[in-house]
DNA sequence: CGGACCACCTA
DNA sequence: GTAGGTGGTCCGG
């Protein structure tokens, strides 16, 4: 490598955007509520470049005020870009400050884009004998590449590519880099709103360049084209020329390359530290100090190099692999998840590991012996299906030491598989060995089918992370990337995309199964170390050990149990519905004067508002369609028969498709019952959710809808269904937490809380409260739980905005402590960045200090609602665990089947009925002690409708 | 065939 | 105004 001087020109916004979106699923929010993702992403990249390349000259270029020249040429230029996200706008001043403190020149020029500045400077520096590297992911820069000017392009997944002339020629299939302009002009760029030639994409553009050399060449020779393409291109020649000019990076910006100014000298470290401290960057501070203070030996941990090219700016240091076989993996580079360089991720290929399959009978016996000597083991089952009821074991991975693990493949033959799993029974049923896993409910259900019970302490990393940050997603890939800076082998790599050609895990070669499965177990084990600490720090260890983990077993058994469904009844109901739907359909067509698809809001909107012109100014949805939502239509229903028919039609079709038709198809053939899947980690407040099918939204409000509930029936004639409901649990919680005596007293006296509220706010005796008054009071009571606003209230009632405001004011005067409580919750959230439930379940509210009033308002409503909804969830979870344990301990035949947020449904063995009534009511009402009594109503019946 | 959007079901 | 899930249409790869 020559000692030619090297200049690095950084395309700031490109790296800022990249950094910002890299963190988009897990934005970095500091305690002041600032979204620092963009700053962190940008600084990670900048330091990474400096550490890797040690440039002697460096500058950072920003766009400023958009490109006036290009807009003049074409006014739509970049017009369809979304508004810059708030997280990026707020980041830029910080980044400017940091760069200033680092003594790095910031280049921007009103009316020019960073591309143009970089283009101009690179040419100037080249003339002065520099080698120039343009740091940007944007392929448009390829047009600027020369013998001395290179693109230095961050690559997804980590590392960089250096693009010189040979790379550009290869990537774009051009003869020389300038032709990239023609290429971009032809295919266009939707993000920059460069129109391009119609009908020309990447492939065609390459073909044309190859054939004609340039845009002009193409336009001059359209006679060689044929068909539609010929017509389109001939008609759009002007657009083509314009597109080319838009794609061209300018080289004549009034900026000057000043070698001295661009020298990368020593930054003002104290100043940078101060800024970082203010932003609460801890790891980045260390990283920064190491980069500038240190000896430069701190090379990036284990970069994944892709496409090594001849033009590498500096020879790379040999990578310092860890000394021991397992030391690299999860060793010193223990990332705490707080800051992660999104571009440099470890993978199985870059990390040393020892994963082995256990194949022979002898090896298995030895392995189990070893397993039984452990105190804590992570395991992960591989199966043929994501539905545990249909899944067969393909293998089980085990790991108890980071970087190391074993895989036991299972035979396809069921008897042989059962024989093999019996070898592991002593392990799974050992009370003294802790079992670690990701989504253990799944593994427990699979093993239950083999009659294996998983005993002992459990640690589920998915649940742990749910408590650490319920708003995030908790799949293993995301967790590994966030906390371990590691990209696991993707399942699609193994079995392909889902669809026709997807393989079963069984079809994957054992070696690959081993790598994949043990990696999962290994990662899960490493995540556990991480999360254990974080649970302690957030004080949620107890919630984890005493609620979520025990609940996992409860849910597994409820799901395995399933519920009996009367399919014949549903089929009969379907027939009835079908007749009614067809009748309505005919009436609607007659009234509309034509046939159309009533289920298509688009077509419906045209009929109602263009053909029939039911309204002067129809309401539109945000996408510009006519809104045909329920509230809009029900307003018109009394004047227009067709509208009422449409509403009825929609109601009935929904009922039929979602419930009456769908449920019988969800009956599990093996058991003849319906097995829902409870999601324990999706609702940010701590509630469960239910799917496949969702049994938490079976209709009840309308007479027609509630018929569906008749289809949920007891196991057989020896059983009956029992439903147990918490009465007004959320209002009781807010009364208790706010210590609002008036409301507490009403509950203690067993009053109808909505009537009681109405009596107080409308100042009438409780016996004289009208239906409407009670209704309005009820709406406000719920409004309080959801985080009131006069606007929302007036939408829900027939009150005007000002009447609503008055009602809310009177309400607060009646229940003064509620207002104080609500304010306290919001204040707490502002100060701490989170709110919590009675059991300390947290929800972080990153927007609570947002400058945007709408965004902040939403966070404030969350601050009020999350502790209420979440505490109710906590309480019913306690009740479920206790009831489940008692049913098991007492060897009762009765089973808990369903949970619907404030209701539990049981299959009761008739002889146990009286015992069960007492047990269930007692456990539910005493699950958690509040200053307000909890009240549970029990109902019994031969189907879910009767039992409610 | 997957994702966005709309509509509608629950607590 | 809170928290979820599912089914239908429509559009684009």
TrEMBL record:
InterPro entries: 3'-5'_exonuclease_dom (IPR002562), 5-3_exonucl_a-hlix_arch_N (IPR020046), 5-3_exonuclease (IPR002421), 5-3_exonuclease_C_sf (IPR036279), DNA-dir_DNA_pol_A_CS (IPR019760), DNA-dir_DNA_pol_A_palm_dom (IPR001098), DNA/RNA_pol_sf (IPR043502), DNA_polI_H3TH (IPR020045). It holds the Pfam family 5_3_exonuc. Residues 355-536 form the 3'-5' exonuclease domain. Residues 5-265 form the 5'-3' exonuclease domain. Residues 295-339 are annotated as: Disordered. Residues 560-594 form a coiled coil. One of its GO terms (molecular function) is DNA-directed DNA polymerase activity. The keyword Nuclease applies. Its EC number is 2.7.7.7. It is an enzyme of class 2 (transferase). Transmembrane segments: none annotated. It comes from the Bacteria. It catalyses: DNA(n) + a 2'-deoxyribonucleoside 5'-triphosphate = DNA(n+1) + diphosphate. NCBIfam families: pola (TIGR00593), PRK05755.1 (NF004397). In addition to polymerase activity, this DNA polymerase exhibits 3'-5' and 5'-3' exonuclease activity. This is DNA polymerase I. It comes from Winogradskyella alexanderae.
């Amino acid at each position: 490598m020559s000692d030619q001087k090297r200049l690095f020109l950084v395309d700031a916004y490109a790296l800022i955007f990249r950094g910002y979106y890299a963190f988009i699923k897990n934005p970095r929010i500091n305690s002041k509520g600032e979204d620092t993702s963009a700053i962190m992403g940008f600084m990670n990249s900048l330091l990474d470049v400096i550490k890797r390349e040690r440039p002697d000259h460096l500058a950072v270029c920003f766009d400023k005020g958009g490109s006036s020249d290009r807009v003049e040429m074409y006014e739509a230029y970049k017009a369809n870009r979304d508004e810059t996200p708030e997280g990026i706008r707020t980041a830029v001043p910080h980044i400017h400050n940091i760069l200033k403190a680092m003594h790095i020149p910031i280049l921007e020029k009103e009316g020019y884009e960073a591309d143009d500045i970089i283009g101009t400077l690179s040419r100037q520096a080249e003339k002065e004998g520099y080698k120039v590297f343009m740091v940007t992911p944007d392929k448009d820069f390829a047009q600027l590449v020369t013998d001395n000017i290179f693109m230095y392009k961050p690559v997804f997944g980590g590392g960089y590519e250096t693009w010189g002339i040979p790379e550009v020629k290869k990537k774009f299939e051009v003869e020389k880099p300038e032709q990239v302009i023609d290429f971009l002009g032809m295919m266009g760029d939707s993000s920059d709103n460069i129109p391009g030639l119609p009908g020309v994409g990447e492939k065609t553009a390459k073909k044309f360049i190859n054939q004609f050399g340039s845009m002009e060449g193409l336009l001059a020779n359209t006679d060689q084209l044929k068909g539609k393409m010929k017509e389109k291109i001939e008609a759009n020649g002007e657009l083509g020329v314009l597109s080319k000019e838009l794609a061209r990076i300018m080289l004549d910006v009034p900026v000057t390359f000043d070698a001295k100014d661009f020298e990368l000298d020593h930054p003002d470290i104290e100043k940078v530290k101060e800024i970082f401290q203010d932003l609460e960057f801890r790891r980045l501070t260390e990283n920064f100090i190491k980069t500038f203070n240190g000896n430069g030996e701190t090379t990036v941990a284990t970069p994944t190099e892709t496409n090594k090219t001849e033009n590498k700016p500096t020879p790379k240091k040999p990578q310092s692999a860890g000394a021991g076989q397992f030391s690299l993996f999860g060793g010193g580079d223990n990332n705490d998840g707080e800051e992660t360089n999104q571009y440099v991720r470890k993978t199985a290929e870059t990390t040393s590991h020892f994963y082995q399959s256990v194949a022979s009978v002898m090896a298995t016996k030895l392995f189990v012996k070893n397993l039984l000597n452990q105190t804590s083991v992570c395991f992960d089952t591989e199966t043929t299906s994501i539905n545990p009821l249909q899944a067969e074991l393909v293998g089980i991975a085990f790991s108890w030491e980071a970087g190391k693990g074993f895989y036991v493949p299972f035979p396809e033959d069921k008897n042989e598989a059962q024989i093999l799993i019996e070898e592991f029974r002593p392990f799974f049923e050992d009370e003294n060995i802790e079992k670690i896993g990701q989504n253990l409910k799944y593994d427990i259900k699979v093993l239950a089918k083999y009659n294996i019970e998983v005993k002992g302490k459990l640690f589920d990393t998915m649940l742990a992370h749910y408590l650490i940050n319920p708003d995030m997603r908790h799949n293993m890939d995301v967790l590994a990337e966030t906390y371990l800076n590691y990209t696991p082998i993707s399942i699609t790599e193994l079995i392909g995309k889902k669809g026709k050609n997807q393989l079963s895990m069984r079809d994957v070669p054992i070696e690959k199964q081993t790598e994949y499965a043990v990696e999962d177990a290994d990662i899960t084990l490493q995540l556990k170390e991480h999360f254990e600490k974080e649970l302690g720090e957030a004080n949620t260890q107890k919630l984890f050990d005493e609620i979520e983990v025990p609940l996992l077993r409860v849910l597994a058994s409820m799901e395995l149990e399933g519920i009996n469904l009367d399919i014949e009844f549903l089929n009969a109901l379907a027939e009835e519905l079908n007749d009614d739907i067809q009748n309505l359909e005919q009436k609607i067509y007659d009234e509309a004067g034509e046939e159309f698809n009533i289920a298509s809001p688009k077509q419906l909107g045209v009929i109602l508002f263009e053909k029939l012109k039911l309204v002067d100014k129809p309401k539109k949805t945000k996408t510009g369609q006519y809104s045909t939502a329920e509230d809009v239509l029900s307003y018109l229903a009394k004047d227009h028969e067709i509208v009422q028919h449409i509403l009825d039609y929609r109601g009935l079709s929904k009922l039929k498709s979602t419930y009456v038709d769908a449920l019988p198809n969800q009956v599990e053939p093996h058991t003849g019952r319906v097995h829902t899947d409870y999601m324990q980690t999706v609702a940010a407040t701590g509630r469960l959710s239910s799917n496949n099918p969702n049994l938490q939204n079976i209709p009840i409000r309308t007479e027609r809808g509630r018929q569906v509930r008749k289809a949920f029936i007891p196991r057989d004639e020896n059983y009956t269904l029992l439903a147990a409901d918490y009465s007004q649990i959320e209002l009781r919680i807010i009364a208790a937490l706010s210590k609002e005596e008036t409301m507490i007293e009403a509950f203690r006296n067993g009053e109808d809380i909505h009537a009681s509220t109405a009596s107080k706010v409308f100042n009438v005796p409780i016996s004289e409260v009208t239906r409407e008054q009670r209704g309005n009071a009820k709406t406000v009571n719920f409004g309080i739980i959801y985080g009131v606003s006069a606007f929302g209230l007036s939408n829900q009632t027939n009150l005007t905005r000002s009447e609503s405001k008055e009602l809310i004011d009177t309400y607060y005067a009646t229940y003064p402590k509620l207002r104080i409580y609500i304010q306290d919750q919001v204040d707490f959230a502002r100060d701490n960045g989170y709110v919590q439930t009675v059991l300390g379940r947290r929800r972080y509210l990153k927007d609570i200090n947002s400058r945007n009033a709408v965004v902040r308002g939403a966070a404030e409503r969350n601050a009020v609602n999350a502790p209420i909804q979440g505490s109710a969830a906590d309480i019913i979870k306690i009740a479920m665990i206790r009831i489940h344990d008692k049913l098991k301990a007492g060897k009762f035949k009765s089973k808990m089947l369903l949970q619907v947020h404030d209701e539990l449904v049981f299959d009761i063995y008739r002889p146990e009925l009286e015992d069960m009534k007492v047990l269930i009511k007692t456990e539910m009402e005493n699950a958690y002690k509040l200053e307000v009594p909890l009240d549970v109503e029990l109902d019994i019946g031969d189907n879910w409708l009767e039992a409610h």
